[in-house]
From TrEMBL:
Residues 34-108 form the Secretion system C-terminal sorting domain. Keywords: Signal. It comes from the Bacteria. This is T9SS type A sorting domain-containing protein. Residues 1-19 form the signal peptide. The keyword Signal applies. Pfam families: Por_Secre_tail (PF18962).
């Protein structure tokens, strides 16, 4: 009986310890403005440190229609995106760094 109680206590403490770990966000406040847009939009985000990111745009079928690597600085960053020959519709844009991928959508009208 005591072994069972100790085992349950150990599991509870382990679970609480893991659930309280904080994942550091390296990129925050990702947005596109204006959205929807006709010719171009500005993608803005905040970076916790200078790094290399991968910016990509996919159509609703999941096909990558734009991809480029950028160097970021600590703090506020922006990427000017021009639609070029992309058709009107909804697209998913993503920023990927060493830790995670953040995706949102914009609309070309």
């Amino acid at each position: 009986m005591i072994k069972k109680i100790l085992f349950i206590l150990l599991l509870s403490v382990s679970f609480i310890g893991f659930s309280q770990q904080k994942v550091e966000k390296s990129i925050e406040n990702l947005s596109a403005a204006p959205n929807p847009f006709t010719n171009s939009t500005k993608i803005t985000f905040k970076s916790k440190k200078a790094s290399t990111i991968y910016f990509s745009v996919k159509n609703v079928l999941g096909k990558t229609v734009f991809k480029k690597t950028y160097k970021t600085k600590k703090g506020n960053n922006s990427i000017d995106f021009h639609k070029d020959d992309l058709a009107t519709g909804m697209y998913i844009y993503s920023i990927q760094d060493q830790k995670k991928v953040i995706s949102k959508r914009f609309v070309i009208k």
